[in-house]
Design a protein that fits this description.
This protein is mainly β and 443 residues long. The chain has helices at 2-23, 244-247, 282-285, 322-326; strands spanning 27-31, 47-49, 58-60, 77-80, 86-94, 98-109, 115-121, 132-140, 145-151, 158-159, 164-165, 169-177, 187-192, 205-206, 217-222, 232-241, 253-259, 269-274, 280-281, 287-292, 299-303, 307-308, 313-317, 332-333, 344-349, 357-362, 380-383, 399-402. Strands 1, 3, 4, 6, 12, 13, 14 and 16 form an 8-stranded antiparallel sheet that branches. Strands 2, 5, 7, 8, 9, 10, 11 and 15 form an 8-stranded antiparallel sheet that branches. The protein is elongated and about 70 Å long. Residues 1-23 and 422-443 have low confidence and may be disordered. The chain binds calcium ion (4 copies). One calcium ion binds next to strand 16.
Length: 443
């Protein structure tokens, strides 16, 4: 019997790992350089690469701006010279699947030789590890037109045409695909100015040099190149993530709690959470909260109006009696919050449930939740720690459903979940960053 049990356990583990790898992605590092202008980069979360102290990396005054990008216009940026000190910042080492790095760059000077200025690095912590993979390059022609390029390692660089300009901010996305077929078959792609909110397009250029794959990738390397080859540039808004959507989030907002208190039906609410680094104007985003009753044809729709600051919640309450139950007024009162636990909630963007685009869900479309894992009759469902983006498909991995006896067991206005989303992995130093708003320590 023991062996059968073990085999079942093995199968279950395999299924869970499959779900994990298919349905669960994370943001591993966010770096908006929200540090003091003029300060050495090494003061804040970054480590020196090797030993050079020439042209110490320094925080620039003012952040780079790129409309719609999550790392736009937050704090300051990083100034890079054409030669000198290098630095790196670690994240939880990755060895399989895909790894993305999105970054804003503005190049003020380059050479006709070309050099690379940022890449992934193998080690999360070693100052002497020089295994750099996914190198991004800049070069100019005699007319000061820019080309951007990529190599996997130290081989030939694949450049774009000279169609880019100095002193212009570009959104670059580096993609590293881990392949298990050989120790030199991993692939590096570069996307330039991809459309935020769309699915992943074809890459702008793909590296062709064949290089060994190493033991994984664990940090972002910032590299000031050679004095006759390097560019002078500003870098900002670095984001390392396991999926395209996490690298380029359209809006860092999601449903964080739904509630149907057993002792007070008028104290029902839906709570939203802003996991990003900037205030979200909910009204301008044209978001709707919608309820579908029992999976049938009866819907309630309401436009969400107001703003929600970074790391804060926005609570929609069913009635003004919410305040008597919880001690504060909800951000918005709406009569559509009548779910008794089997009626799904949806967030739509750009319109209501008939005209908008689905953005996040609690429950499932056209489905009565009675007896299903998402039923929250007389209870509450809370989004687990580690979830930082919406999901248009309800996943049991992302939620914890409980049945408090009364309203005291609910926590509208705060999102500080205890349950982990299948033990998510957080970046080295991630919770310490001043510009990261979703972490246990800061909320
Ligand atoms: Ca910034
Ligand atoms: Ca490989
Ligand atoms: Ca119902
Ligand atoms: Ca809450």
């Amino acid at each position: 019997m023991k062996s059968i049990y073990s085999f079942k356990k093995f199968l279950l583990t395999g299924i869970l790992l499959t779900i994990f790898s298919l349905g669960w992605s994370q943001t591993l590092l966010v770096e908006n350089f929200d540090y003091t202008s003029g300060a050495p980069l090494l003061d804040d979360n970054w480590l020196i690469q090797q030993t050079s102290t020439t042209n110490p990396l320094t925080i620039a005054d003012g952040g780079l701006i790129y409309d719609g990008y999550s790392g736009s216009a937050i704090g300051n940026a990083l100034a890079m010279m054409n030669t000198g000190q290098d630095a790196f910042r670690g994240f939880e080492k990755q060895k399989e699947g895909v790894l993305y790095m999105s970054v804003l760059v503005n190049i003020s000077a380059a050479t006709t030789v070309g050099d690379y200025f940022i890449s992934f690095k193998e080690s999360s912590t070693s100052t002497t590890n020089t295994f750099y993979r996914g190198r991004l390059w800049a070069m100019k022609d005699a007319s000061d037109n820019l080309a951007l390029g990529i190599s996997k390692g130290s081989g030939t660089v694949v450049y774009t045409d000279f169609t880019y300009s100095l002193n212009t901010t570009y959104l670059l996305v580096l993609k590293y695909t881990f392949n298990s077929g050989a120790d030199d078959d991993d692939v590096c792609d570069l996307f330039i100015n991809p459309v935020i909110g769309d699915t992943e397009p074809l890459p702008t250029v793909t590296a062709t040099d064949v290089q060994s794959d190493g033991s994984g990738l664990g940090s972002v390397l910032i590299r000031q190149g050679g004095s006759t080859s390097g560019a002078t540039l500003t870098v900002d808004g670095i984001r390392v993530a396991q999926s395209w959507a996490h690298a380029l989030p359209e809006m860092e907002l999601f449903i964080s709690e739904v509630a149907d208190p057993a002792d007070n039906a008028n104290a029902r609410f839906v709570e939203l959470f802003n996991s990003g680094a900037t205030t979200i104007d909910l009204t301008a985003a044209n978001l709707y909260l919608s309820r579908q009753s029992n999976g049938g044809t009866t819907w309630g729709d309401v436009q969400i109006t107001g703003t929600v600051d970074a790391g804060k919640t926005f609570v929609l309450g069913l009635a003004t009696t919410f305040e008597a139950a919880y001690g504060f007024a909800p951000d918005q009162v709406t009569s559509i919050l009548s779910s008794n636990g089997d009626d799904a909630y949806f967030i739509y963007k750009g319109g209501d449930h008939t005209t908008g685009t689905l953005f996040d869900v609690y429950g499932a479309l056209d489905t009565d939740g009675t007896g299903l894992p998402w039923e929250f009759l007389d209870g509450r469902a809370e989004r687990n720690f580690g979830v930082n983006l919406p999901n248009t498909i309800w996943s049991a991995l992302e939620w914890t459903v409980t049945m408090p006896t009364n309203v005291a067991g609910f926590n509208p206005g705060v999102h500080a979940p205890v349950a982990d989303a299948l033990a998510p992995v957080w970046a080295v130093g991630y919770p310490m960053a001043a510009n990261v708003s979703l972490c246990k320590n800061s909320i």
